[in-house]
Design brief:
eight-stranded parallel beta barrel; 33% helix; 9 strands; globular; 256 residues
């Protein structure tokens, strides 16, 4: 178990974390999506981090550029200079034309003073790359350890983060696609402060068991109001959602 002695991620109310920003309403992983998430009442944002061909950390989810940008091919085949020329908004809606892929420094600089930031280290397809070290160096250089949580499906990445920066909280992502035995093994061998299960995996017993282990529990990706309400009632510590406004309304109902 890892305890983060000085983190802003500890909160009595369940946290609302906007998945890739307010990605139901704006192009994912863009500044527009992040700013909208804050406006809609999110406590934090989740964003994806990958390495470019010249080893710069940028905010992008897919291995390729095709789905969300005007570019094509693998992200890792392009330099940061080339990636900066791409449009990352038009494929969502024409009114977002001109949105750009951000560097991690740019995203943290714009948003870390306003919301918490969960940085998803997306290197499951390149597990030996230098993404964990690069991300840790950026967070430390900017002095944002209390505001940032680094999450990954990759046990190796979280072990490297733990070795380099025990002061930064980490989240172990797990998916329902992975078998139960493998999930148990990965959980036992991976240092993590928070447990981030896919929504279908979450039960009251799982939340209780992880709390007894000293872990926070944050479910992804939860968009249905009735399910958000149920998870809050079960005592979950947070939800990652495409619709932070919906989750905020559910939470406000509980407070009234």
């Amino acid at each position: 178990m890892i305890r983060a002695p000085a983190t802003d991620w500890i909160c009595d109310a369940p946290l609302i974390i906007a998945h890739r920003g307010a990605s139901a309403y704006a192009p994912e992983n863009t500044l527009s999506a992040f700013r909208l998430a804050e406006q809609l009442g999110a406590d934090g944002i989740e964003l994806d981090a990958r390495l470019t061909g010249d080893r710069r950390v940028v905010v992008h989810h897919d291995r390729t550029l095709d789905r969300t940008t005007s570019g094509t091919g693998s992200l890792s085949d392009h330099s940061l200079e080339e990636i900066r020329r791409l449009d990352a908004g038009s494929s969502f809606e024409a009114r977002f034309a001109g949105e750009r892929i951000l560097t991690l420094e740019e995203a943290l600089g714009a948003m870390a003073g306003r919301v918490l930031i969960n940085v998803h280290l997306v290197n499951h397809d390149t597990p030996g790359d230098s993404l964990p070290e690069a991300a840790v160096a950026i967070v430390q250089r900017m002095g944002l350890q209390p505001r940032v949580l680094l999450s990954s499906f990759n046990p190796r990445s979280l072990r490297r983060v733990r070795r380099l920066a025990p002061e930064i909280p980490t989240g172990l992502l797990v998916t329902p696609v992975t078998g139960r035995l493998k999930r148990r093994i990965v959980r036992r061998i991976t240092p993590h402060w928070a447990y981030h299960p896919g929504d279908p995996l979450v039960t009251p017993d799982l939340i209780q068991a992880e709390h007894l282990r000293g872990h926070r529990v944050v479910a992804w990706t939860v968009d249905v109001p009735s399910r958000i309400r149920q998870l809050f009632a079960w005592g979950i510590d947070g939800v990652i959602t495409d619709v932070p406004d919906v989750a905020r309304r559910v939470r406000d109902e509980r407070i009234r």
